[in-house]
Amino acid sequence: MKISPDLHMNRNQIETLFENCQDLSIVPWQYGPEMKYMSFSVYFESLIEELKLNYMKATLQDLVTHEVGKATMITPEEVIEFFSKNGISAQSAKMVENLEDAVDAIVSGNIVIFFDEWDRALNYSANLIETRQVNEPLAESVVHGPRESTVENLNKNIGMIRLRLKTPRFKIERIAAGIEAKTEIAFGYLDRAVNPETLAEFKKRISTIHQAEVLETSYIEDWIEDSNFSPFPQYRYTERPDVAAAALLDGKIIVMVQGTGSVMLCPGLFVEMMQSAEDYYQRTMIASLIRITRIFAFFIALTLPSIYIALSTFHPELIPTVLLLAILDSREGIPFPAFVEALIMEFFFEMLREAGVRLPKPIGSAVSIVGTLVIGEAAITAGIASPIMVVVVALTGIASFSIPQYNMASALRLLRFPLMIMAASLGGFGLMVGCIWILLHLACLRSLGQPYLGSLAPVNMKYLRDVFVRAPLRTFLRSPRNRHKQN
Length: 487
Fold this sequence. Notes:
By secondary structure, the protein is an alpha+beta fold. It has helices at residues 7-17, 54-62, 76-86, 99-107, 154-162, 196-206, 217-224, 241-249, 284-313, 321-330, 338-358, 361-382, 387-401, 406-426, 428-444; strands spanning 24-31, 37-44, 64-67, 70-73, 93-96, 110-115, 121-125, 170-177, 183-190, 236-238, 253-257, 263-266, 446-447, 450-451. The strands form four sheets. A five-stranded antiparallel sheet has the order 1-2-6-7-5, sandwiched between helices. A five-stranded antiparallel sheet has the order 8-9-11-12-10, sandwiched between helices. The protein has a two-stranded antiparallel ribbon with strand order 3-4. The radius of gyration is 31 Å and the shape is elongated.
């Protein structure tokens, strides 16, 4: 709908649209000979910075023509001619021609000024968005390397990444999602490094998100992922600009949302969930040892309780005699079978872990640690659980904390329980069937059309240098120019 030359009609439409919005401010202005012409400015007091109200004073100065020794106010016709030809002297300002754009500018934290007898309005950027300062990342601890973290300001996040990739090949495209929220979404990629087929598939999927109300980056993950019911995450997240820059060099697509500090990296492959940014800041031998330890932690976090249940219930002959006698002695007087005992301890461990996350930070860690010790000791004393089961559950929890990506660790927490049920039902055979089912699911899973087990299935010898061990950095530091050539 076009802006009307009738100022009263424009004001009535604005007041109707923003009815009961008590933080909306409509300020009338007068100008021209004998101050007989009217204008008004519209803005939300809760969204704008007070100092930027001076932009309107700059506009009033533009409405004055200086003759010899005096200043004369100009007419509406001269206002139209002046702004149409000369533009606006204030910074971050532009003209809007329809009411929808004016409303979008108002709700985005801008100041919009309407003039009588003019079918356009002036739009000044004056929004004040309070965000936290750049500091160390909270979800990704830093021992060695950059200590910057992304924040909730989209432009600031893009700037931090662009400082690391000073090339015009780093492309940023923006879209808006939602009818009410109109959330600004930006996705970036490195031209000639990203796979064209993957980029085309990503654009095809995200192009359908315009009607969705997006408030956080994870909303986009749920919208564009290949399998919504897979326990395994198909995209990675980071709060570190250096990790986002490295992902771009590796041919990934990054997705950022205004109002959240998480950067989504896609596609996300299984082997990448086992990698950390600090693997590339350590020496080769140290990084490789940490990588191998992390892989062992993955299998411990997934299968240790199930292995204990299967061995103690169905296959005691596979346990060394001395260890078997120790287990039998510790389980003497326990009223529950191994499966129920493991289920109870895992349930309480998950409750304590969740309580430690939800409680305020100063007391959350203390409650989770002290609670685990107290409940474990109390369970042993009361005869509900054996000491060996407490050790098994504790080792499983510690191993899950070793996984760099939190969403991958959450997937292991979910899969542990079906494996425990199968081990309690069929012993080692059930555990084997469960592991084969997981492996088949991983082999069939895809992320943006790419095989989830990329580098492993199908095998890529070139990329195996960064799977189980980390090869020397000199083999990674080449520019990714023309990685994917098009005919």
